[in-house]
Amino acid sequence: MKKTLTLALLATLTGATLSAQAQITLDGIINANEIGTAGGKYTSLGAFSTAHVGNAGFGFAGLLRMYGANSSTKLYIGLAGTMEASGNNFQLYMDLPNRTGVPVGTGLPAIAGTSTVFGTFSGGGIGGTKLELEADAAIATTGTRDVQAAIYTATTGVAKSLGDGLSTPATADGMANTIPASSTTGVYSLFAGTRVAYLAPTTPTGDITSNPGNTNGGGAGSYALEYEFNRASLGLPSGASIVRVMAAYVSGDAYWSSDVIPEIPGNGNNNLGFNPDFTALAGNQAAMLNVVVTSARQADDAVVAMSVFPNPAQDESTISYQVLGGTQAVAVRVTDLLGREVRILLDARQNAGFHDLKMSGSDLATGVYLVQVRVGDKVATRRLAVTR
Q1: Closest CA to 387 of 364, 370, 358
Q2: What confidence tens digit (pLDDT) does each residue in 132-148 have?
Q3: SS3 call for 187
Q4: DSSP notation for 329-357
Q5: How many CA atoms lie within 13 A of 256 on its CB side?
Q6: Choice between 19 and 72, residue whose per-residue pLDDT is larger
Q7: Which uninterrupted H or E stretch holds 304?
């Protein structure tokens, strides 16, 4: 099915420089002064626009809107919404540059056991679910304030609790808590230094109808689950890179509610059940973040937002880049280190938005090449190592 929805977090370049200092206070509230287009502020990555009702979806609970922001050292995701005080949970799936996870459209590998929400249960499990982003990692916070994580390779998955029974689990009062270092060793080091804050309504009903964001589509003042990730821990490269994310409200035994962001056009509050295949549903359930911190010297690089992955590559690589501001001429070429042209991959006009271009390296000799993307008068270049 053709996908038509693309969402992006775009840093606004004003003048020659972009100052991307953190402007987010981790307190479980999406404050008005935290929202904007400047670097370091929250930008909307999409909303769940269907009204929450008591007899559909997961009732008076769920997602309202997803936000993203970044600074020179941090990546922020805010999930405006309210969870039931149970094992139901907000899940965030991440496709990170320079990692290889479960390919798009491939069922997530099953994770044995019921100790995490990513496990396998009597009715089903997260395993088998097909996403529209490459799943490298996922993090979940439950209504009981346990923080859990899953780490994926192309064929395997592992998961564990990062907070349950420890000294600093998440709370419901908006307090920012740091995941203990003892929980983020080995493959879980992606989440080293991660902080979590969640604010739950207390009056009058304690459900999503008491969340200030319920009346403004998850806008300013929304109570939320907020994550602050360390860019270095996530392995985000300096300069421009792209992260894809998806948020969902899922039961403690892997039953998916209607609430996913980016949402499914036309689905309303019809629950998705066990093991949904998002590639067969309307829309594109993957939001793209341009997580770039720039100076004047890096301005071109920021506009193009180019990445090449995997790198090094044995066969095929994907070149991702951004066309900003309207239809523009785009040229993608490969040269050797002396600047001699090896291959022209693209020379055409393309519409605004993020684009992916596949490049086969099977006929290239092993070595290092330069991949150049020119969008209008902006140019970005990356080294690509071809191995065997």
Answers
A1: 364
A2: 999 999 999 999 889 99
A3: helix
A4: EEEEEEE-TT--EEEEEEEEEE-SEEEEE
A5: 26
A6: 72
A7: helix 299-304
- Ordered by where they begin, the domains of the chain are 7-290 (no CATH), 306-386 (2.60.40.1930)
The amino acid present at 155, given as its one-letter code, is: T
Determine contact, residues 292/241, Cβ cutoff 8 Å.
yes
- 22-68 pLDDT, tens digit each: 689 999 999 999 998 777 899 999 999 999 999 999 999 999 999 99
Q: What are phi and psi of 46, to 5 degrees?
A: 130, 165
CA distance 353 to 17: 22
Query: Quick one: pLDDT at residue 340?
Result: 86
CA separation (Å) from 268 to 57, 282, 324, 357? Answer: 9, 12, 31, 33
Residue 61 to residue 191: CA distance in whole angstroms: 27
Alpha-carbon dihedral of residues 247, 250, 254, 256, nearest 10 degrees? -90
pLDDT score at 22: 66
Question: Residue 359 belongs to what H/E stretch?
Answer: strand 353-360
